[in-house]
Write a structure and sequence with these properties.
Length: 204
């Protein structure tokens, strides 16, 4: 069988020289360090090496006893925690930005509503202001959904028709689906389609 050099298996986290020489030079000392295990498949696995160097005799010199532990699961968990922390921070930032947007949006909506009423019977101009009011309402709905996502509220279930909720949700994505060439078809085969659910949260 072909022999495998220690330094072919484990990378040196200190960047210079071989890891084996480093361990051997620490006669009588314990070492615990993280490094990469280089597998034949080409991928690298993070491991923890626990090593102890002992002197056998004057003829054989020093020898290293090394035990390594696979840290893959631990590293994956740490990455999940970091990702969750980033998402939490993003949620808090989004909620703050949404509040800052909502304040001037309320002022715009109030002013547009006053303008709409002052135009009286001028249908042509009122039509343009109505577009502004509708778009403001749409923006406010987006902000409300963003706030609900960042800070989930407790469900408020009601007796609602499940197909009705699905049809409303499909209406929200129908334009995007059409642009991407996706055809939506909803078929309801339920005999009893009433459910206790929170309509808004299910659509979200």
């Amino acid at each position: 069988e072909a022999e495998i050099e220690f330094d072919e298996l484990f990378s040196n986290p200190f960047g210079s020289g071989g890891l084996f020489e480093y361990l051997i030079s620490r006669s009588g000392e314990r070492s615990s360090l993280e490094c990469a295990l280089c597998r034949k498949e080409g991928d690298r696995v993070t491991v923890r090496l626990n090593a102890r160097t002992v002197k056998l005799d004057d003829h054989h010199g020093n020898s290293a006893v090394v035990i390594f532990e696979d840290l893959s699961a631990q590293k994956e968990m740490e990455e999940e925690l970091r990702r969750a922390d980033r998402l939490r921070s993003l949620g808090e930032l989004s909620a703050g930005v949404a509040h800052e947007i909502r304040n001037p949006l309320t002022g715009i909506a109030t002013t547009a509503q006053v303008l709409y009423e002052k135009l009286g019977d001028d249908a042509e101009r009122r039509r343009y202001v109505k577009v502004i009011l509708d778009e403001i309402a749409r923006l406010d709905d987006i902000i409300r959904n963003l706030l609900n996502f960042a800070r989930p509220v407790s469900p408020r279930p009601k007796d609602i028709s499940l197909p009705g909720v699905i049809e409303e949700a499909l209406a929200l994505v129908s334009d995007t689906a059409a642009e991407k060439g996706v055809r939506l078809r909803f078929e309801n085969l339920l005999r009893d389609d009433r459910c206790m659910l929170d309509n808004d949260q299910v659509k979200q």
